[in-house]
Amino acid sequence: MSLFNSVNVSASGLTAQRLRMDVISKNIANANTTRTANGMPYRRQMPVFKEKTGNFKFSESLDAAKGKVNFGNGVEVIDVVEDKSPFKRIYDPGHPDADKDGYVKMPNVDIVTEMINMISATRAYEANVTAMNAAKSMAMKALEIGK
Predict the structure, then answer these.
(1) How would you label 54-64 residue by residue, b for 16+ Cβ within 10 Å and e otherwise?
(2) 135 near 74, Cβ under 8 Å?
(3) N or C: which end of the chain has fewer CB within 10 A?
(4) Which residues pair with 51 in a beta bridge?
(5) What is the DSSP string of the chain?
(6) φ and ψ of 60, to 5 deg
(7) Cα–Cα distance between 10 and 59 in angstroms, integer?
(8) Residue 47: which residues within 8 A CB-CB, separation 6 or more?
(9) pLDDT tens per residue across span 93-140
(10) CB 124 within 8 A of CB 130
């Protein structure tokens, strides 16, 4: 694994966590949206991550076949899917979206869960920044040795 590969892995993690934060922000912003373009309440969204693969060198494939460690190439977001859990129902007969019984379907967004996910995404982002800074520091130390 080269120095630049470790920076690329960290960069892919930064990109994935930034997108995760964007999705979480969208969920929080729409926590009270009872009507979207399709006429239904907003449905919570979640990003789906996958290990990034591809463009391996032949030597890396050979090492993997021999049972040596293959470090991979980072992470990528392959999709953003909707949470299929049921909508919340609250009694509010005065609401314009209330049904005949006075209940309103509310989005399936739980603010506490979203805040926990936001903290997790922030910590993962910070960990990737730390890893990238460590790789940069190692490169600088290697350059100093050559002086």
Answers:
(1) eeeeeeeeeee
(2) no
(3) C
(4) 75
(5) --HHHHHHHHHHHHHHHHHHHHHHHHHHHTTT----TTSS----EEEEEEE------HHHHHHHHTT-------EEEEEEEE--SPPEEEE-TTSTT--TTSEEEE-S--HHHHHHHHHHHHHHHHHHHHHHHHHHHHHHHHHHHT-
(6) -70, -40
(7) 23
(8) 16, 19, 20, 23, 77, 79, 80
(9) 999 999 999 999 999 999 999 999 999 999 999 999 999 999 899 888
(10) no
Q: What is the pLDDT of residues 8-19, one digit of tens each?
A: 899 999 999 999
Token pair in block for residue 36 = 């979207």
- Joined tokens for residue 122: 């922030």
